[in-house]
Design brief:
Elements (H helix, E strand, L loop, with lengths): L2 E4 H7 L4 H18 L10 H9 L3 E5 L5 E9 L2 H6 L10 E9 L8 H16 L2 E7 L3 H9 L3 E10 L2 E10 L2
Parallel strand pairs: 4-5
Antiparallel strand pairs: 1-2, 2-3, 3-4, 5-7, 6-7
Organism: Physocladia obscura
Pfam families: Acetyltransf_1
GO molecular function, one term: acyltransferase activity, transferring groups other than amino-acyl groups
């Protein structure tokens, strides 16, 4: 069984440093993606991770032994995404935006990612929210993963990742 916990709560209740954990996980995922020649995401900065932790939008997934195995950021849907991605059929106040969905590569292929998505869907149901996410348009494996988990493709858009312009596929999940 997995637990989805706020990174700030983990910092207060355990010896885990959430900033260090999320940064190291991101590096581990980047290295794994490079090894399989998969499309890349940009590196996470300490400042960005700490901003998410301080605003209670950083989450860490713990396995049944309390060991962290993944993380994600879940925040209110930014207005620029709402407008640029033509999501005006959604209520922006009831829409969340998930980024940096990371699973430790040693757990890939064991259906743990599916369980992580279930935890996020449970959060959405409890809060009466819709989940929006994007992924690189060329990352077909991740796109299939989201589609298999009930996310509906909404379109291909150009977005900014730091200073880079990237082409992303947008997905929405509604309870």
């Amino acid at each position: 069984m997995l637990t989805l916990a706020l990174a700030s709560d983990i910092a207060a209740a355990t010896a885990i440093n959430p900033t260090e954990y999320i940064i190291s996980l991101s590096i581990k995922v980047q290295t794994w993606l490079q090894s399989i020649k998969s499309p890349q995401i940009s590196k996470l900065s300490t400042a960005r991770v700490e901003a998410h932790i301080n605003s209670n939008t950083a989450y860490i997934f713990l396995n049944d032994r309390g060991v962290p195995i993944g993380s994600t950021f879940i925040e209110p849907l930014p207005e620029r995404c709402f407008l640029d991605w033509n999501l005006t059929d959604l209520d922006i106040r009831s829409s969340l935006f998930m980024t940096r969905f990371l699973l430790d590569p040693e757990y890939i292929g064991k259906k743990i990612g599916d369980n992580m998505i279930c935890q996020i869907k449970d959060k959405c149901v409890k809060e009466g929210k819709v989940m929006v996410l994007d992924t690189l348009e060329t990352n077909t494996a991740v796109r299939r993963f989201y589609e298999r988990n009930g996310f509906v493709f909404r379109g291909i858009f150009t977005d900014m990742e730091g200073n880079l312009e990237v082409v992303v596929a947008c997905y929405v999940w509604k309870p």
